[in-house]
Write a structure and sequence with these properties.
With 306 residues, the protein is α/β, with parallel strands linked by helices. The chain has 14 helices and 8 strands. Helix 6 crosses helix 12.
Length: 306
């Protein structure tokens, strides 16, 4: 059964499970599939003593981190074309465990994530990949420690283009005024020195790169936006030990022609927005990017240089 929700309590980890077949996970995001297929939930408890006692060989085949609006959804959607793989895209249970403020010590968060990984493995019954929400990248060290044998990739895009997208369509977690959003803001700008939205999104991109820079580069690969879609079968799949034959590669290439975030059954053609986003960038955003994002990106790239 598919883990749809998760909650840590003093008595243990509680999971809400739904009877949804892995083959149904064709939406861009797992929660869209859950909303599209309303079925009853079953609540199960993992006692506090048993949290983290995952079965062997239940770790993900790969982890996908990203910096937001950078092609990560395309990566996850193309991987779904693989015949022997299940992809869980931005699953809410992961968010519910990681969302700050963290009320549980680090080792218990890691144990809860391992139990959740075990639940995904039981649902998938084959190799699976976890594609995280963008803000999860701020805590990528926790996720990497939870699944120490799993390779990871970081999806990247020019910070100017990411900044334009975040400013024009800020995600809910970025624009919220509730405690979790405020806590996330403290990870991005702990001193509260941002004096504009442009400044903040630039610092956010820099914080993503800084967090990823703390991971073991031998386990990871950077996936630049301009290398897509070929990077999925040339970089991501081999790094995740996924064999890709010619038929699967052709299916991925064909799927890449469509908008990866289009609802199921409503396919639309992909159109590049690089030029549009570059043209829309203000001088203030470019200055903030040069100050707070590009140096961190360049440092990360040096860590991963051949």
């Amino acid at each position: 059964m598919l883990p749809a929700r998760a909650a840590l309590h003093p008595t243990g980890l509680y999971l809400a499970l739904r009877q949804i077949d892995p083959a149904e996970l064709q939406d861009a995001f797992m929660q869209e599939t859950i909303a599209r297929l309303p079925v009853p939930e079953t609540i199960v408890q993992i006692t506090r003593e048993d949290i983290g006692k995952a079965a062997t060989d239940t770790a993900p085949a790969g982890l996908i981190f990203h910096v937001a609006r950078c092609g990560s959804t395309l990566i996850s959607q193309l991987l779904k074309q693989h015949d022997n793989l299940v992809v869980y895209a931005e699953p809410l249970p992961i968010n519910e465990i990681l969302l700050p403020p963290h009320k549980w010590p680090r080792h218990e968060l890691i144990a809860a994530l391992r139990s959740l990984g075990d639940a995904f493995a039981r649902h998938a019954r084959k190799p699976y990949v976890l594609k995280f929400s963008s803000w999860n990248t701020l805590f990528c060290d926790i996720l990497a420690e939870a699944f120490p044998e799993s390779p990871w990739v970081l999806s990247l895009r020019d910070p100017v283009e990411v900044g334009v997208s975040l400013l024009s369509q800020p995600p809910r977690w970025l624009r919220g005024s509730e405690e979790p959003s405020r806590e996330l803001s403290r990870f991005v700008d702990p001193d509260g020195t941002s004096d504009s939205h442009e400044d903040f999104v630039a610092r956010l991109y820099g914080a993503f790169c800084t967090a990823a820079g703390r991971l073991d580069p031998r386990r990871g690969r950077l996936v630049p936006y301009k290398a897509l879609p070929a990077a999925v079968w040339e970089i991501v799949a081999p790094h995740f030990s996924l064999s890709i034959d010619g038929r699967q590669r052709d299916r991925m290439a064909e799927a890449a022609r469509s908008n990866s975030k289009a609802p199921v059954g409503k396919a639309s053609e992909f159109a590049s927005d690089i030029a549009t986003k570059q043209a829309a960038a203000s001088a203030g955003l470019r200055l903030a990017i040069d100050s707070f994002a590009r140096p961190q990106l360049e440092h990360l790239e040096r860590l991963h240089a051949p």
